[in-house]
Amino acid sequence: MTPEDRATRQAMIDTCRAMDARGINQGTAGNLSLRHGAGFLITPSSLPYDTMQPGDIVEMGWDGTYVGRRPSSEWRFHRDILKARTDMNVVLHCHSPYATSIACHHRTIPAFHYMVGVMGGTTLRCARYATFGTQALSDAALEALQDRKACLLGQHGQIALGKTLDAALWMAVEVETLARMYQQALVLGEPPVLSDDEMTRVIAQMTRMSYGLGPEEEGANDIARPRTPPT
């Protein structure tokens, strides 16, 4: 294993541990994959993140073959999403409490708040239920992720995508935050929903500003012009 490869695998483990630290995952639930070389890397099955080492990360090919430990039982949707979404490099899956609660009701989250737009459209879809680890679940996830960067999985959890590990983690936290806000808003009744026209404007503004795309360099969101101080 090269130093670069070890660092990449360690970054995946650090991201998994951050999932637990931020309260969006627990135990051995959830999994993470990263496009790598001629295939992808994925977390192993049934191994706690706090004991995971770089050598435990599994290398997989697009044909489903693997090297090392047994891969996560959800490897099918990781493979299929990475193959279909060449614009994304990371697939993060977790059982965050609020998102999972919404998913248990098979509810799609509407544009009750403009930040729904960071997922790429006017809704945060919920995929139909399918047994974990099956091709049926992968098919359902791909359908729900069409033109989206995240989705809920019916009676299961959530999936978040990103170009980087940090971006995928940011997206997963945002999904959980929106799910929590939506549940709290529902206490007062169904909240009003922003129109498709307004969400089109919101998404266009987000694109112009790189808003909601995850961690950014300082100044990446700015649209104001810097002023030269008087001499």
Q: Which runs of at least 5 residues are low in confidence (pLDDT < 50)?
A: none
Taken in chain order, the helices and strands follow as: HEEEEHEHEHEEHH
Mean pLDDT, to the nearest integer, reads 93
Largest sheet: 8 strands, mixed
Describe the strand arrangement of the main beta sheet, using strand numbers. 4-3-2-1-5-8-7-6
Helix content: 25-40%
Global shape: globular
Q: In words, what does this structure look like?
A:
- The protein is α+β, with helices and mostly antiparallel strands and 231 residues long.
- It has an 8-stranded mixed sheet, sandwiched between helices.
- Strand 3 and strand 4 form a beta hairpin.
- Helix 3 crosses helix 5.
- It is globular and about 50 Å long.
- The mean pLDDT is 93.
